[in-house]
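Comment on this:
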Amino acid sequence: MTLHKKALGARGEEIAVRYLERCGYRILERNYRIRFGEIDIIAEQGADLVFIEVKTRSDTLYGSPFDSVTVPKQKQLSKVALEYISKRGCHDRPARFDVVGVLLKELDSKKLQDAGIELLQNAFDLCYGNE
């Protein structure tokens, strides 16, 4: 992954966190990583535990940010979420997967208004094994 791509992703995550907080989410963890994957943001919104994938793009030449949350990616996120739920003992909480798409034209921009942000709640269902 190039430095530009890493910086773009990090910038997009910062913007997403600020946006989510304004939307009433309480951020619990960022970049939750285990041996077989990572979840960008874990948050609460009301009673819900929310696992959030952030996808940042500088243009839509190769599709929208949401296009890259493929079924294999959903399976990986599901495995990480189940591990988190198991480790934290929060089996009784409602949980969901959200995706935040950030379209960021200027990498150096620190302003929310300079980014196109779209939040897709309940973006996909928990994916198991070889479904």
Residues 19 and 112 are 7 Å apart (CA to CA).
